[in-house]
Specification:
Elements (H helix, E strand, L loop, with lengths): L1 E5 L6 H12 L14 E5 L3 H10 L3 E3 L2 E6 L14 H9 L3 E7 L15 H31 L4 H18 L11 H10 L7 E6 L12 H12 L3 E5 L1 H8 L3 H11 L5 H12 L2 E7 L3 E8 L4 H8 L1 H5 L1 E8 H7 L2 H6 L4 E3 L9 E7 L2
Parallel strand pairs: 1-4, 1-5, 3-9, 5-6, 6-7
Antiparallel strand pairs: 2-4, 8-9, 10-11, 10-12
Bound molecules: guanosine-5'-diphosphate.
Length: 364
């Protein structure tokens, strides 16, 4: 699951990306990080994992991860191939969600590509490029579908009607994610992999002094208003502070945050917002060797979750022994959970819930 970091040049994308990968990546476990410098595998912070770690005292504790991709190169005109336009759009196609960084910090030493600092204009510049790219994709498909529709087959007529609706929305400056498409629409959007359909958050990069209370920053408020219009979230951070924090050892970083009056790191907020954006849930495996957090799409079944651990576990799935995190914490130990009859046996149709601690039984 990948989240693409996009934004105009000089807004702080690389600063944020580097902070994320320096502070939250587990380079040893993911050697390919060093092969593709634009992809960072980042640990997802989860206090539940710490609690399980205390309880089980395992040899190893492994958080779950998501990937961030630094996608540079978006400029006005990208959809027409300006700059690295096409390459840039191709990279966005490969991610499941978008984190758009917008500049809300003032710094005379850092030039803005369009002169004045105006984050809403910047968002519109980017979103317009993405809409134009989608418009081209939809039009191309319409040509093809029109030819097919000549056969009179109902399916193609319906498709053409839906494509027409998508085209109209895009031409009016709406992102596809703002629409409420029917079944055919959903299928087409997926097939065409439309860019403006991807779930999006806005990351307002603010001045260091606005970090603790960004509500006084007029620019952040403008971004929030814009985002509210499309039901998107805004996370305010200072990429610069995050970059400084990323250079420090854990204890030093904690002290520095305390000094600044920060309760939670901006990186953690970005990671968690990204995780939520992808509609993912976390389940755990726990034993004396390892406690580990795993990620599945919300709605995944027990065998699908088992498949995240090993394909054999999915293929040979018999049943899952499941304890909910809340039950375990309330009871205090696995033995108590058993005593109280809170350990559940679940079959292949069971939908895994966030916080489930699972033990899978399977045939080899
Ligand atoms: P990108 O082109 O979007 O990847 O932007 P960079 O991350 O390379 O940042 C561009 C410039 O802005 C660099 O000189 C950064 O040091 C600076 N910069 C990034 N974030 C901040 C910030 O939060 N505050 C200030 N003052 N400067 C920043």
């Amino acid at each position: 699951m990948k989240i693409g970091i996009v934004g105009l040049p000089n807004v702080g994308k690389s600063t944020l990306f580097n902070a994320l990968t320096r502070a939250r990546a587990d380079a040893a476990n993911y050697p390919f990080c060093t092969i593709d410098p634009n992809v960072g595998v980042v640990n997802v912070p989860d206090p539940r994992l710490e609690v399980l770690n205390e309880m089980y005292q395992p040899a190893k504790k492994t958080p779950t991860t998501i990937e961030f991709v630094d996608i540079a190169g978006l400029v006005r005109g990208a959809s027409k191939g300006e700059g690295l336009g096409n390459q840039f759009l191709a990279h966005i196609r490969e991610v499941e969600a978008i984190a758009q960084v917008v500049r809300c910090f003032t710094d005379e030493n850092v030039t803005h590509v369009d002169g004045e600092i105006d984050p809403v204009r910047d968002i519109e510049t980017i979103n317009t490029e993405l809409m134009l790219a989608d418009l081209a994709t939809v039009e191309k498909r319409m040509e093809k579908t029109s030819r097919m529709a000549k056969s009179g087959e109902k399916k193609y007529k319906e498709e053409l009607k839906v494509l027409e609706e998508l085209k109209t929305a895009l031409a009016e400056g709406k992102s596809i994610r703002q629409l409420d498409p029917g079944e055919t629409g959903k299928r087409l959007i997926k097939e065409l992999n439309l860019l403006t359909a991807k779930p999006t958050i806005y990351i307002a990069n603010v001045n260091e002094e606005d970090m603790i209370d960004p509500s006084g920053n007029r620019l952040v408020n403008e971004v929030k208003e814009y985002a509210a219009g499309e039901g998107a979230r805004v996370v305010a951070i200072s990429a610069k502070i995050e970059a400084d924090l990323a250079e420090l050892e854990e204890e030093e970083a904690r002290l520095f945050m305390e000094e600044l009056g920060l309760e939670e790191s901006g990186l953690d907020r970005v990671i968690r917002a990204g995780y939520a954006l992808l509609d993912l849930i976390t389940f755990f495996t726990a034993g004396e060797k390892e406690v580990r957090a795993w990620t599945v799409k919300r709605g995944a079944t027990a065998p699908e979750a088992a498949g995240k651990i090993h394909t054999d576990m999915q293929r040979g799935f018999i049943r899952a022994e499941v304890i909910s995190y809340e039950d375990l914490v309330r009871a205090g130990s696995v033995a108590k959970v058993r005593e109280e009859g809170l350990l559940r046996l679940e079959g292949k149709d069971y939908i895994v819930k966030d916080g489930d601690i699972c033990y899978f039984r399977f045939n080899v």
